[in-house]
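In practice, a research group might receive sequence data for several interacting partners and want a quick structural hypothesis before committing to experiments. The following worked case mirrors that situation: the sequences arrive first, and a predicted assembly follows.
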Amino acid sequence: MYQDLSTPLRTILTPGPVEVDPRVLRVMSTPIVGQFDPAFTKVMNEVMEMLRQLFQTKNQWAFPVDGTSRSGIEAMLCSVIHPGDVVLVPVYGRFGNLLIEICERYGATVKVIEKEWGRVFEPAEIIEAMNEVNPDIVALVHAETSTGRMQSLKEVGEACRKQEILFIVDAVASIGGADVKVDEWCIDGLIAGTQKCLSVPSGLAPLTYNKRVEERIAKRKKVERGIATEEELKATNQQFIRSNYFDLSMLQDYWGPRRLNHHTEATSMLYALREGLRLVLEEGLEERFKRHAYHEKALMIGLDEMGLERFGDDTVKLPTVTCIKVPEGVEADEVRHTLLEMFGIEIASSFGPLHGKIWRIGTMGYSCRRENILAVLGALEGVLVYYGVSINKGRALEAAIRYYAEEQT
Amino acid sequence: MYQDLSTPLRTILTPGPVEVDPRVLRVMSTPIVGQFDPAFTKVMNEVMEMLRQLFQTKNQWAFPVDGTSRSGIEAMLCSVIHPGDVVLVPVYGRFGNLLIEICERYGATVKVIEKEWGRVFEPAEIIEAMNEVNPDIVALVHAETSTGRMQSLKEVGEACRKQEILFIVDAVASIGGADVKVDEWCIDGLIAGTQKCLSVPSGLAPLTYNKRVEERIAKRKKVERGIATEEELKATNQQFIRSNYFDLSMLQDYWGPRRLNHHTEATSMLYALREGLRLVLEEGLEERFKRHAYHEKALMIGLDEMGLERFGDDTVKLPTVTCIKVPEGVEADEVRHTLLEMFGIEIASSFGPLHGKIWRIGTMGYSCRRENILAVLGALEGVLVYYGVSINKGRALEAAIRYYAEEQT
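A structural hypothesis for the assembly, expressed as tokens:
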């Protein structure tokens, strides 16, 4: 009745999910082992080690939550937020709004400062707001894919540390593509994603947190009946974390030496993450960031030559996402559909006020390579000309090829 | 630094995760497409159709939550429970305790009736408790892997429907291995698992719910800022669901025609689920249940011949899990470790009061086949003899082979 799965091959140049390295795809076909098999707990431990390197941290806790990126954000926030806590959320795009949303769900008093989409905050602006609202937590997006901007974090982190405010960062879109220094930037809790610069399919949300977070959640520990010790049952604090699935104190006991059964780890996804991390570390973090910047430049040169206008403040551009304004006289989504239908190339639209106004081209992880940059430049030119948009013809590819011929990574 | 992933091949006879059909493993290597690619939304729609068939329901809503099985349980419970709601949880094993745990986290008043582990409730006992505590919701485990028992549901479902009580069922361990009739049994919301009788890796939690549940959650709808319409923002009910990730009203808008962005669907896992469901439907539900019962019988014949004693009430045995008492004079976990180390065969222990007292042999999905049954019988005999346990030697395999030679599925 149903046929064997048959999907087209795509060139994916969105800000996620992006193309998966064939080596990562391949390990997903590995026959599974049981969740407490020593062969599997070894894989779990290796993934934790590799995540620490990726996050540039000495934190003990670095593991994935079994869910998509926002599951990691929710796990982190619901584990640290006590109802009534004041959380300061500086918003400069859609994913800042998501942080507000999750904080509200868990009963925080959310204080918001906003920046026009396409720009980011001066650290001093955030620090000033901290002084005003005296938050328990600052929650901040590092890389805002909705606008293609990247917020600098270090000064904010240092100010938080000084004032004993918890600093929680959503680095879903930057991790593995741009520098993220958890310890040096004084980040207490950080959430990453798999389907962007790590080039692993969506489905896990790696995160890390330090002792400050650990102590906070230890006070709220609740172990479920049936696997708790008598003492744990008696000691349960009524301020327990409101989610079982996202309770980091329980996840910690599953990933730690106690191996207390919580969920059944998503075996094949963990294999994929292990391979994805292995490839990141094999390439080297610095090399990988350089590669992203290198291809970003080729793309920008080509788009500039074509005569398209970039969106947003260029000085704080996210290196893994390039936003361009949709030229007059053409329907944004129609261009995207034609790119997909005719060329098998996917680029993205954006959300809310920017929908239909900009296109976003992601150059993340395995998708971020020469043939893809050249493919999208050529295809976009073809489609724009087809729709009668006035652009400079025949110059984008020439400029990009010259760049690639002359410049090394 | 890190080597290519290299894991041993195992014969997995636990109650999950179990061996994955090679055809399912294979589709996991399929290159991915974007989440709003028409090629992908088609896969999403197909999965919904197939899930309806698996669940034997006409419900519109049948889709996976992106997380392990308990994420589906939490999504269902947190979406239907208003703080203060009375939830009746009849407990006959560890996973009943998990239902209590999740209900408590979301502020329900939980009423519990308990049954000695190894037995199940008479429907009349549950209905009597319903009359006493007048619950808003009854939450019940269909197949309790911790004890290997299966609870009959139909009469309870009919009583709930009559009294306008919501009936929520955890069928994680039975779905695809034993009959589950969502509509006929008056189940309002049901959660399944992938890593058991569907033989798909852990990481998705398929669920279904009917109009009664849908109406309940529609009243609590909250759409996040940044993607909500003005009207939706104004209309937000303060009784909103306490989790963003698990808010079924948002998941519904992602799986439904509105395709409102929520998470990024776990592409490769959905490919795996599609293939797993395709194989289940190709085999046929009735045939599949028969196959599980057929091999269960071979296993029981062999264990009986060996002289091992089964645990629990045989009349309500879960066909996909066989529990045996650990004989005197042998350390339960040592036997398991030797089985794993020497034979590469994994069987399970149990939880809490049953840990070390029983072994659990799962015969689920792809793991449930002749060579595996024979392998575990032969290996278990060898290991028990090695540890000096007095059993009937040389009879288990003979009896099982004879059964297989004489009886057809």
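Before designing any experiment, note the following. The mean pLDDT of chain A is 96. DSSP finds 14 helices and 13 strands in chain A.
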